Amino acid sequence: MAIKILKNFFKRIFSNLFRHKKDIKLGFYGPPNAGKTSLANRICKDFTGEEIGSVSKVPHETRNVQFKEKVEIEYKGKKMVFKMIDTPGIATKIDYENFLKYKMKKKDAKNRAKEATQGVIESIKWLDDMNIVVVVLDATENPYNQVNITIIGNLVARKIPVLIVANKVDLKKADVKRIESAFPEYEVVGISAKYGKNLEEFYESIFKLSKKV
Amino acid sequence: MVKKRKNLGKIKGFSIQFLPYSEIRDLDSDRRIRKILNVVLGNIILILQGKLRAEEETRLIGDTMAMIGHVKDFKGIELAVISGNKNDSIWGKMKKGIANALAGGDLGAITIIGPATIVKEIKRNPKKIELLLNR
After folding, report:
1. Domain of A161?
2. Which of A12, A13, A181, B12 gives 20 to 30 Å between its CA and that of A88?
3. How would you label A5-39 residue by residue, b for 16+ Cβ within 10 Å and e otherwise?
4. What are the two backbone dihedrals, phi and then psi, of residue A212, each rounded to the nearest 5 degrees?
5. What pLDDT, on the 0 to 100 scale, is given for residue B108?
6. Is A144 close to B125, i.e. CB distance below 8 A?
7. Residues of B in contact with A121 (CB under 8 A)
8. Measured at the alpha carbon of residue B81, what is the angle toward residues B29 and A26, in degrees to the nearest 5?
9. What distance in Å separates the CA atoms of residue B17 and residue B44, rounded to the nearest whole number?
10. Is residue A150 part of a domain?
C-alpha cells in the first residue's frame, strides 16, 4: 500500500515536471474559407519562415490536417512552443457543383468534393487531440451558423480552451460585435490574417489561454 | 404597413416530419443518428423535439459526410438547433437543468434537419429563423 502511494506521488511529480516541456497542440478550426490556413501561415511565416499550407478563394482548399512542429512564438519577451494543427473546414454539405463556379473541370470538382468530405471527418476526429483551439470565423458572415455552434459546443464538452478569432476585419462588411454578441461567453479577437492586423492582441490571448492547459 | 410577401415561385412540394424526443430518448447515439439520417435520406425535413448531445452533432456531421458520394443525389444536410434563452439567471439555469435531467434531454430545444437538396439554407439570427428552399 505504502509503495503504491509513493509510486503515485513520484508519478504525479514527474508528470507535472515534464508536462510543460511538451509542445502545446494548437488547433485551427472553423467553417470553410474563414481563413484558418491564412492565420496559421501568418504565424508560421513570422516565427519559422515557412508556411503550413496553400490558400485559395475556392472553398475546401485544405482537405487534409496539416502540421507544423516546434513553432516557437515569442511575445513580449516570453516564449512558448506550439505544434500548429491546421484543419479542413467543417461543413454539413458539400456539393461538387459549387466548385464548377470557379471554372473547375467536372472531374476535378467531384474529386475535390470527395476529398473535402474526408477532410471534414478527419477534422472531427482530431478534436480530441487538441490542447487549445482557435475557432476562426469570417467576420463578414452571419455567425449564427450551426457549424460554429457545434464546434464550440464540442470543445466545451471536451474542456478544451477556446479563442474565437473574427477574421477579415480589413473588409467593410466585417462585424466583430455581431460575433461577440453571438458568443458572449468567449473572448473574441478581431484580426486580418491577410494583412497581419491586430496580431499582437491575438498572441496575448493565445499566451493567456495556454496557461489553462 | 404590411410587408409584401415574397413570391414563392414554383416549389415542387416537400414533407416535414415531427419526431418527439420520446422516440429517441432511449436510443444510443448510433441508433439516434441512424434514425435521423433515415428520415433525411427520404427527402424529408425533420423537426426534432429537443437536441442531440454535442458529440452526437459532430457524429451526425461525420456520418453525413461519409454518405456523400455513396448515396445517389445526397449532398449533405442543413442543420439548426433552436435552444432556450442563454441569458437565464443562475437560478433559471438550475431549474432548467433539473427539468432537463428529469425529462432525459433538453425538451425546450428544437432541432431542424433537412436534406441539402431541399433546404438551401437555414438563416438564423437571435430573433428569427428562416428556411430557404431550393427551387
Report:
1. 23-210
2. A181
3. eeeeeeeeeeeeeeeeeeebbbbbbbbbbbbbbbb
4. -80, -10
5. 82
6. yes
7. 62, 65-66
8. 75
9. 7
10. yes
Q: Would you state the cell numbers that stand for residue A169, as one nine-digit string?
A: 476585419
**A136 close to A188: Cβ distance less than 8 angstroms:** no
Is there a contact between B54 and A156 if contact means CB atoms under 8 Å apart?
Answer: yes
Q: Residue ranges of the domains in chain B?
A: 15-133
Q: pLDDT tens for residues B109-131?
A: 999 999 999 999 998 877 788 88
Q: How far is CA B4 from CA B8, B124, B134, in A?
A: 12, 21, 21
Nearest CA in chain A to B54: A154
Residue A14 lies in a domain: no
Q: Which residues of B fall within a CB distance of 8 Å from A59?
A: none
**For residue B119, how many other CB atoms are within 10 A of its CB?**
22
Strand, helix or coil for residue A94: coil
The CATH number of residue A143's host domain is: 3.40.50.300
| Grid cell listed for A85 | 494543427
pLDDT tens for each residue of B23-33: 999 999 999 99
Using the beta-carbon criterion (under 8 Å), do B76 and A114 form an inter-chain contact?
Answer: no
The pLDDT score that the predictor gives to residue B134 is 85
Contact A92 B64 (CB under 8 A): yes
Grid coordinates representing A104 are 473547375
| A16 part of a folded domain | no
Pull the grid cell for residue B52: 442531440
Is residue A74 in some structural domain? yes
Residue B89 neighbours by CB distance under 10 Å: 9
pLDDT score of B1 = 47
* Sequence-separated (6 or more) residues with CB below 8 Å from residue A162: A132, A133, A134, A135, A152, A155, A156, A186, A209
Q: How many domains does chain A have?
A: 1
